[in-house]
């Protein structure tokens, strides 16, 4: 997997220039028409993580690859990308149309926690397939972004933040009500939130020398200064899987990413994910996927 792409590298590769004021410390926002970037037979986008957020509204046949998942798109799709999850696009139609906006986390400093929304969470839903009616409700939001960013309005960036939130909330309204994370209002939910924060803090694994420090339910309970039974109960009361299952799911997801998108050998991947023995990692992976790590890699190559 390629190294993480910075916002500066995005501009250098796409426009051969870096906008003035990009490093002002107040964050960065910009909006683009996809047609200017995705022409006929474009070069494939590398599968990697970016240091910036991106929201894309795309019409046309394509495939979206993110984390360990692939989503085929026949008509329209809205995709929320964040620095924690690697992704890329595979263009199938000769021409894709639409819009996308990019922004840094500092652009929303003191304006809300973007990673608290399900569309930007590793276990959330970042990809929304849209009908013709739905795409016609999202496209005007991007059009308003173009109007705002080119205006002389003194508070235009506040207005642009509101438009980003409008995209987020309108997308989340497309989900069933019971699939949307709610605010953490009691002790169990706060513990569950802290557990997930500790779990995600260990990712992404970006080199073979990096290693998970918290690997077992006891590790997390000790870090949170609570009994393991208290942690298990809190996750259960919050409607979650068991502690062990949540850890295993996230390790499997990262393992798939590393097997599929790096040239590291299986022992290096297993070690980075906290396994002392390659055989233990192979058995764990096969138990959860039905394939050995090597067979999973061969399957992806084919």
Automatic annotation (TrEMBL):
GO terms for molecular function: DNA-binding transcription factor activity; sequence-specific DNA binding. InterPro entries: Homeodomain-like_sf, HTH_AraC, Tscrpt_reg_AraC-type_HTH. Keywords: DNA-binding, Transcription, Transcription regulation. The keyword Transcription applies. Gene3D superfamilies: Homeodomain-like. It comes from the Bacteria. Residues 189-299 form the HTH araC/xylS-type domain. This is Transcriptional regulator, AraC family. It comes from Flagellimonas flava.
């Amino acid at each position: 997997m390629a190294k993480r792409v910075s916002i500066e590298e995005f501009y250098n590769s796409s426009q051969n220039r870096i906008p003035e004021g990009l490093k002002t410390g107040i964050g960065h926002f910009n909006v683009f028409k996809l047609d200017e970037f995705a022409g006929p037979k474009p070069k494939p986008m590398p599968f990697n993580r970016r240091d910036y957020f991106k929201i894309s509204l795309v019409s046309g046949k394509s495939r979206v690859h993110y984390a360990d998942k692939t989503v085929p798109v026949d008509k329209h799709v809205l995709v929320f990308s964040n620095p924690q999850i690697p992704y890329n696009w595979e263009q199938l139609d000769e021409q894709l149309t639409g819009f996308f906006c990019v922004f840094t986390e500092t652009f929303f400093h003191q304006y809300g926690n973007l990673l608290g929304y399900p569309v930007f969470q590793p276990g959330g839903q970042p990809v929304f397939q849209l009908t013709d009616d739905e795409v016609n409700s999202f496209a005007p939001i991007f059009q308003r972004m173009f109007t705002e960013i080119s205006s002389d309005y003194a508070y235009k960036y506040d207005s642009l933040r509101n438009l980003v939130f409008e995209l987020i909330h309108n997308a989340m309204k497309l989900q069933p009500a019971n699939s949307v994370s709610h605010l953490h209002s009691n002790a169990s939910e706060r513990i569950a939130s802290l557990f997930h924060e500790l779990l995600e803090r260990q990712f992404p694994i970006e080199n073979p020398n990096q290693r998970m420090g918290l690997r077992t339910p006891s590790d997390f309970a000790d870090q949170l200064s609570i009994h393991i039974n208290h942690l298990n109960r809190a996750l259960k009361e919050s409607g979650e899987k068991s502690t062990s299952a949540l850890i295993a799911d996230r390790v499997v997801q990262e393992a798939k990413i590393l097997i599929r998108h790096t040239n590291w050998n299986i022992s290096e991947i297993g070690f980075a994910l906290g396994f002392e023995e390659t055989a233990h990692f192979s058995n764990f992976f096969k138990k959860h996927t039905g394939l050995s790590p090597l067979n999973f890699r061969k399957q992806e190559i084919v």
